[in-house]
Amino acid sequence: MKKTASALMLTAAVLTTPALAQYAGPGAQPAATSVQAILDKPVDDQHVTLRGKIVRQVKSDEYIFSDGKAEIRVEIDQRLLPATPFDASTVVEISGEVEQDAMRAPEIDVRALRIVK
After folding, report:
1. 75/78 Cα distance (integer angstroms)
2. Cα 98 to Cα 74: distance, rounded to the nearest angstrom
3. Is the pLDDT of residue 6 over 50?
4. 15 found inside a domain
5. 71: part of which helix (H) or strand (E)?
6. pTM of the model
7. What is the pLDDT of residues 19-75, one digit of tens each?
8. What domain count does the chain have?
9. 25 lies in some domain
10. Domain assignment of residue 56, yes or no
């Protein structure tokens, strides 16, 4: 009985895990490859992965990210920040979703951040 319950709980956990892949067939939005592409044609909830630097902190969880050509505001939860100290010269890779609000410039809600070595 315990094995059956464990198997059911494991199956439920696997089935409820959100998928990170996106639809890539006809009609799919092309992935943005630069900050400027996001600023030019922001698509709300579009998944993006970018490399660059976090150049300054604006608020407790808001930063300015630069890919070397353009800058965009990013929101990063404290729990996502790496344990290793980093600064404005450290190259990082961020993954997240574009947030587009009619009243503000587009920004990225960061879901993952890693230091690029």
Report:
1. 10
2. 9
3. no
4. no
5. strand 71-75
6. 0.74
7. 445 555 665 555 678 999 999 999 999 999 999 999 999 999 999 999 999 999 999
8. 1
9. no
10. yes
Is residue 11, in this structure, part of any structural domain at all?
Answer: no
What's the domain range around 78?
A: 35-115
Q: Give strand pairing partners of 92.
A: 52, 115
pLDDT tens digits, one per residue of 107-117? 999 999 999 98
**CA–CA distance, 47 with 49 (Å, rounded to integer):** 7
* CA-atom Rg of the chain in angstroms: 18
The string over 30-60, giving b where at least 16 C-beta atoms fall within 10 Å of a residue's C-beta and e elsewhere, is eebebbebbeeebbeebbbebebbbeeeeee
Instruction: Give the pairing of strands 91-99 and 47-57.
Output: antiparallel
Amino acid in the structure at residue 81: L
